[in-house]
Amino acid sequence: MTGRKRLAGSPDLSSSGLSRRGFLGGATVGVGGVLAADMRAVNGLRAEEIASELRRGEKHVILLWLAGGASQLETWDPKPGAKNGGPFGAISTNVAGIEVSELLPQAAQRMHQTAIIRSLNTKIADHGRGADLMERGRLDDPGLKYPDLGAVVARELGRLESTVPDYVSLYTSTEGRRKGTSGFLGARYAPLFLAEQMSPPNSALHESLSLDQHRDRAALRDLLSKRFTADRRNSTVGSHNSAYQRVQGMMASAELFNVEQEPADVRARYGPTQFGEQCLIARRLVEAGVPFVKVARAWWDSHGQNFETHMELCADLDHCMSALLDDLQERGLLEKTLVITLGEFGRTPTINASLGRDHFASAWSCSLSGMGIRGGVVHGATEPEGQTVADGEVSAGDLFATILSAVGIDFTHEYMVGARPTPLADFGSTPIETVLA
Amino acid sequence: MNPDCHSDPRLRTTSVFPVVNYLFTTLVSRAADNVLKPWPDAAFENFFSFRPFVVTTLLLGLLCIARQSKADEPVAVASNESAPQQSLLVDELARQIDIAVDEQNAASGVPVVEQADADVILRRTTLDLAGRIPTAREREWYLQLPAEQRRQLLVDRLLGLPDFDFHLRNSLDELLLPNRPNDGEFREYLLTAVQAQRSWSQMFQEMMLAAPAEGPEKGAAQFLKSRVRELDDLTNDTAVMFFGVNISCAKCHDHPLVSDWKQDHYYGMQAFFNRTFSSKKNELLEKPFGSVRFKTTEGEDRDAALMFLTGAVVADQTPEYSDEERKQLDEKIRNLEQKDDAETVPVSFSPRRALIDAALADQEQLYLARNIVNRTWERLLGTGIVDPPDQMHSGNPASHPQLLRSLAEDLVAHNYDLRRLIRGIVLSQAYSRSGRWTSESVPPGSQTFAVGASRAMTPRQLAASLMVAARSAESWPTVEETTANPEEWLKRRTDLENQANGWMREFEQPGEDFQIAVDEALFFSNSERVQNDLLRDGGDRIVGAVKAAETPEQAAEILWAVINSRSPDENEQQIVRDWISGEDEQQRLTQVQSLVWALLAGAEFRFNY
Amino acid sequence: MRHTDENSAAAAVTEPAAQTTADATVAFVPGQLKVDRTLRLPSITFCMAQHVQSGRVFCGGSDFGLHHFDPAAEKLETAPLSESRHGSYVTGLVNAGGTLVSGGYDRSLIWWNAESGEQTRRIESAHTRWIRSLAISADGSAVASVGDDMRTRLWDAATGECRLTLEGYEEKTPHGYPSMLYAVAFSADGKLLATGDRTGKVLVREVTSGEIVQSLETPVMYTWDPRARRHSIGGIRSVAFSADGTQLAVGGMGAVGNIDHLEGKSRIEVFSLTSGERVHEIEDSKYKGLVERMQFSADGTWLLAAGGDHGGFVSVWSMQTGKLLVQEKVGNHIHDFDLLSDTSLVTVGHDHASLITLAAADPSVEQPEAEQAES
Question: Are C165 and C140 in contact, with CB atoms under 8 Å apart?
Fold first, then answer.
C-alpha cells in the first residue's frame, strides 16, 4: 500500500499499528506473519512449549449433546433381562463393579475417566422445554431469559479479549436444531453457531482485499474511532473496539475448524462419521483455548426401532467419545477438559409396538469425564424396571452445579439481573459430591 | 467464585468510597452498563433490610458525590453557547424537564456537561425521531437556520416526516414484540396506528382487545397472539411492557425483594388473561367463564380476584352457568380450538376489557402512562427515570419521581399523545447535552442525565443509516424538495425502510449491558455484502463521490459530512491526506473504499451519541 | 417362522388343509379377510413356526423363551415350552421335521424337542453378532440363518453341522454405521436362497455352491436420512420366492419423512429372477411401516404380506396387476405369520396373535377401489 510510507511519518499514527507494518515494509508480511504464528500453536505440530503456554490456566468443557434423547438402558444404565430391558447385554468395564450397555465397548474401557449419573429426574419430557431445561439448568422465568451452559462457561472461563471464540456450538442435523442462547448475558456470549458449514461465517478474507490491505484498513478504523471513544466511558462503546480487535484472531481461528489440518492418523482415530470429525474439531478448539464446545449428535428420538437406532448411534458415540478422551488424555488436556454426554431426556423403560422407546425424563442418565471428575464412579440408581429413581435423585440444577464445580466455577456466584440476584446454578441446587474429584 | 469479577473492567466502578459508590450505583443510579454485576456479598442482603439499606446507601452516595464534586472542579458547566437554548423553554414539557433535572443536580452538586454542538444535536435528534442519520443535505439546511430557532424547526420538521412514523413504529415493535423482529402483521398495525396519530391508550386497548379484524388493524392482536400459548407470558409481558412492572417473582411466592408484589398481584393479573385462547382460525377469543386458582406459600388454595397492580379489584360479572351449560360451552370451545367453521361462543363479560378499564381508571399510580413515559425517556436519554424500566416499585425509586409523575399526568391530560411527549423530551436541555466526559474523575451516574448518553443504534437505525451513508450527498433530495414533494419522499423513505429490513438481521438488538458481538465486526470486516454493496463504486455512491473529489481535503469533507454528519478536524484531514495517494485509479479506489469502510465500521458511526 | 412347505411330503400327508389348497389354487383369490380370534401373547413376539406334527403353533420373543398354543383349541392360551431360554430376544424359529430350531440376538441356535421342551443342541456362537432370522428348506433338511455379522450360514438340520458360510455384504453402511442382515428365504425347490440387508441389497444364491445368481437393489428401503436426523430406520425385512421360483418379493418400508417413527409407506418390490427386472413396485397408500413377512400363493397369483408401524396390517396383493386385493388392520405391529391353510393364517406380533380367515370376494359387496402407487 502506497500510503504506508507517509503514514509512518505521522506522529498520530505511530501508535496505530500502521507504522509498525509500514516499517516492516513489503506486501508479503500478512499471511506469513501473525496468522502463521497463531496456526503453529493451533496445529500442535510444533513446539510443545507454545501449546502449553497457550493452555496455562485454561479450562474447557466439551458437551456431546445427544439430541432427541438417548436411551439410558442402551447406554449407561443397562437392565438386561428386565421385562423391558431390551435385547442388549451389559458388559463389565475396566472399573470393577460397573457395567454399561454392550453398545459402549470402548467407553467401557475408559470408565476410570468417567462418572455415570443414573438418577436424573428432570420431569420434562418434551423436546423443546426439555432442551431448555437441560441446556440452562432451569426454565426461563417470565421476563428472564437464562443463559445456557455454554454461555455461562464462556463468561466464567473465557478471556475477555480472547482471539478465539469462547463458545462454539456445532449442530449439523436439522432436526431439533437449536442455536443456544446467552440469555441475559447478551450477545458477547452468544455461541458461534455452525450448522450448514464447518467454518465460521465471515471469517475468510474477501477476494478483493489482500491481507495487508485488510489489516491496514482495520488499523485505520481503530485510528479514526479514537476521537470518539476517548471521552466516553461506556462499556458498550468499549465492546465495539474489543469486537474489532478480535477479528484477526477469529479469522486465524477459522483454521481450527479445518480437520484437513490434522495428520491422517489422527483423523483416522476419530473415524469417518461427521460426529467424529466434529469431535476432532472440538479437540482442536479446546487445544487452542476455546472454553466451551458443544457438539450435537442428532437425532436419537427412537420412537420406532429403538434398538436399531441405538446400534447405529451408540456405535458413533462410543467410538468418537473414546477417541476424544484418548486424544485429550495424550495431549494433557483431559485434566483441563470436562467431557459431558447429555441430552434433553432419556427414554421410556417400556417398549412400544414399533419397538421404540418414547420420551422419558423421570429416571435417566448422563456421563461426565475428565476435569474435576472422580472417574470410575456411578452416582444414583434406578429401580429394577427403570421406571423411577431409587437412589440419589439429581435435578437439572444439581447437574449444573456439579458441572460448574468440576471446572472450578462457583455455582452459587450470583449475577445481578436488574434488581434480581441470579445464581449460576438455580436456587437450591446441590452438586453431586460423589462424582467430583 | 470468580476471583476476577471485581477487576473485570466492564464492571469496575471507582470512587473515593468504592463500596458505597458501588452500592449507590447499583441501587440508585443503575446505569445500563452496570446492570449486570455480581452481587458483592450475599450477606449484605440479609444484613441490611432492604429499605433502610436503600436509604443508607442513598445518603452515603450523596455524600460521595458531594465529596467528589469538591475534590474535582466541575468539569464543564453550561457553556455560553447554550444561550439560544433559552428559547426552547417555550416548550412546556421541556421546561418542566430541565427544571426538575437541573434542580436535582444543583442540589446534589452534580457537574453538568455542556450542551452538544449543532452537528451532534442534529444527528442525535434525527436518529431519535427519523430512525436514521441526517443526510448531508439536511445538515446543510440545519446549519443555515437561525441558531435560536433551528432545534424547534428541526424537531417539528422531523415530527412531520414519514420517517418519524416508521421509527416510532419500529421502537414500539422492539418494545412489544422483541422476540419477533419481523412480524409483518404487527408492524403493519403499529404503522397504521402511528400514522393515524392514535393515542397510546387507544393502541393499548386495541392490542388488549385483539378484536378479530381484517386489513391493517388485524395485527393488533399479535401482542397477545404471540404469547397465547403461555399464560405466564401473557401475564408478565403485559405487566412488563405496558405497566413497567415485572411481577414474575411473585408467582411462586410473594416477591422476595419487593414488598409491593404479592402472589395476589401475579394471579390477579393472570386472571385477566386466563380465559384467553386461540381458535383454530387463529382468532384470539375469550371463554365465557373460568378462574385462576393458586396455592399460596402457606399451602392454601385460593381463587384469584381480577386484581390490577394497584390492588384495585374488578368485580367479576360473569353470569352463573349451570353445570350443563358449562359442559355445552366447553364443547363449543373445544370445537373452536379444533375446527375452522365452529360456532362462536357469546361472551358477556370480558376480563381483558376489565383490565383495560382498570388500567385507564388508575388515576393514582398511572401505571399505563408512567410506563410509556419512562420507556420513551429511556429510549431518548439512554436510561429510564425508573431503571430498569420493568422495576417500577417502591424498592426501586425513580430518580426524578415528581418529573415522572408530572410527565405522566401531562400525557393523560393530553390524551396519551406520544408526539407531545417526545417533542417535549427532545427539546429539553437534558436531552441535548454533550456525551463527552473529559475529566479524569468518575462521570455522574446515568440517572443524573448530566452527561449525554452514547447509545448503540438499534439494528434498524444502523441499517437505515448505512443505507443513507453509502450514497452520495447529492443522491438525496434537499429539504426543500422533500417539503415540496412529500409523496416522493414517502416513496424514497419506504424504499429505505425495506432495504434496511434486509440488513437489520445482521445486528443485535441492544439490551441491558449490551456488548457488540465479534460477529458484527466480522460481518463488517469480511462479508460480501459490505464489500459489494456499501463499498460499491458508482456516481451516486459515497465511494464514487469521494473518488471524484479533487483534493484530499474535499474528500475528507465529503466523507465526514455524509457518514459522520460533521466536518473533519485537522487531524482527520491529515489522515486522509496521508492515506490517499492517488497514484493510479485502482489504488485510489481501494484507498477510498478503505476510508469509507473505516468510517462506516467506526465507533462513531455505530452509536447514537 | 416357516413350516415345511405344503409341497413337501410330510406336510401333504399330515395336513388336511393341503388338500383343499391343491383344489383351490386354480380359482381361489382372497377378497375378504377377517380376524376370527385373538390371543394375548406373553411378550413381544418376533417369530413363529407351525408344528404340523402336533397342530400347535410355537413362537419366540422378547422374554428370551419359546411359547406355544393350539390354534384349534376352544380356549386359546399360551404355555411356555421350557424353563430354559435364549440369552436375548428370540428372532428366528423353524420346524425342521418336528424338531424346532430357534435363533436369537444371543447369537446362538437352539434345537428343541417340541414335546418335552428339552434342548437337544445348542450352538452358542452360530454368528458373531445378532441372529436376525432363520429359514428352513422345503424338505426340512437345511436351516439358513442370517445375522448382523452380515453372514448367511447353512446348517444341517439333523446334525447341526455348518455346511456353508456365505459373505457378500458390507459390515458397515455407506455412511459408516453398522449394517444389519435381516431377511432370508429358501425357494420352494430348496435350490435358491435369498437374503436382504439394511441398505437394500438382495443376494440370491445357489444353495449348494453359494454362488450368487442374482444381485438386486432396493435402495429406497434403506431410508437413510442424511440431513434431518442422520440415521436410518428401514432395511429389507422380508424376502419371499414365488412357488415356481421365478419371482422374488422384497419387503420393507418406503421413504420416510420422519425416521423417528415407522411412518414410511409399507413397500414391496417384486423382481423377475430370470431377468432381474423389477416387476412390481408397491407402496401401500393406507398402511405404514415395515413389511415383516410375505408369502406367495401356491399358484403365484397373489402375495400375502404383513407388518406394521405401531399397528399391524395384513394385505393381499395381486401378482398379476400389482394391485391390492384386500387388506385389514390387525392388532399391533405384526412380526411374523404363517398360512395354516390357503384360507387361514396365524399372525404374531407386538402383543397378540391373530387367527385370520381369507375368503373369496363377496360378489354382493362392491370392492374398494385399489389405489396403490404402481410401477
Answer: no
Quote the CA–CA distance of C135 and C140 in Å, as a whole number.
10
pTM, to two decimals: 0.76
Structural domain of B515: 456-608
d(CA C192, CA B33): 79
Domain count across chain B: 3
Q: How far is CA C297 from the centre of its chain?
A: 14
Where does the pLDDT of residue B180 fall: very low under 50, low under 70, confident under 90, or very high at 90 and above?
Answer: confident
Question: With bands split at pLDDT 50, 70 and 90, how would you rate the model's confidence at A84?
Answer: very high
Q: What is the pLDDT of residues A14-51, one digit of tens each?
A: 333 333 222 222 222 222 222 223 333 333 333 443 44
C162-166 and C181-186 strand pairing: unpaired
Q: List the one residue out of B524, B511, B518 whose CA is nearest residue B463.
A: B524
> Please, how many CA atoms are within 13 Å of residue A50, restricted to the half-sphere of its CB?
12
Task: Decide: C311 and C39 in contact? Cβ < 8 Å.
Answer: no
Establish if A4 belongs to a structural domain: no
Distance from CA of A371 to the nearest CA of C (A): 30
DSSP string computed for A73-90: TTTTS--TTSTTS-S--E
**Beta-carbon contacts of residue B256 (< 8 Å; ≥ 6 apart):** B249
Q: Name the residue facing C260 among A88, A303, A311 (closest C-beta).
A: A303
Q: Are C49 and C338 in contact (CB under 8 A)?
A: yes
With beta carbons under 8 A apart, name residues in chain A contacting B571. 12, 227
Residue C368: pLDDT band with limits 50, 70, 90:
low
Q: How far is CA A226 from CA A13, B333, B599, B609, in A?
A: 11, 63, 11, 14
Residues B224, B335 share a domain: yes
At what angle are helices A48-55 and A36-43 packed, to 10 degrees?
Answer: 90
> Is 90 exceeded by the pLDDT of residue C199?
yes
In a domain, A45, yes or no: no
For CA atoms B564, B569, B573, B574, the dihedral sign is: negative
Q: Do chains C and A touch (3 or more CB pairs under 8 A)?
A: yes
Q: Does the CA dihedral B215-B221-B227-B228 come out positive or negative?
A: negative
- The pairing of strands A381-382 and A192-194 is unpaired
Residue B158, domain member (yes or no): no
Nearest to A71 by CA among A305, A295, A297, A306: A306
Report yes or no on B87 lying in a domain. Answer: no
A226 lies in some domain: no
State the CB neighbour count (10 A cutoff) for residue A261: 17
- CATH number of the domain that residue A66 is part of: 3.40.720.10
**Predicted complex ipTM:** 0.89
B92-108 vs B418-426: helix crossing angle, rounded to 10? 50
Q: What is the largest CA-CA distance in chain A?
A: 84
The domains located in chain C, with CATH, are 9-360 (2.130.10.10)
Lowest mean pLDDT among A239-253, B366-380, C290-304, C306-320: A239-253
* Closest CB to C227 among A174, A273, A312: A174
Task: List the domain range (segments joined by +) for residue A189.
Answer: 57-199+258-435
The number of distinct structural domains making up chain A is 1
d(CA B596, CA B564): 11
**Residue A13 in domain:** no
Same domain, B315 and B189: yes
Asked if A305 has any chain C CB less than 8 Å from its own CB, the reply is yes
Handedness of CA B464, B126, B371, A139 (dihedral sign): positive
Instruction: Give the H/E segment covering residue C124.
Output: none
Length reported for chain C: 375
C331 Cα to chain A: minimum distance (Å): 10
Is the confidence at residue B167, as pLDDT, over 90? yes
Determine whether the interchain pair A206/B38 forms a contact, defined as Cβ–Cβ distance below 8 Å.
no
How many residues are given for chain B? 609
Paired sense of beta strands C212-217 and C201-206, if any:
antiparallel
Radius of gyration of chain B (CA): 27
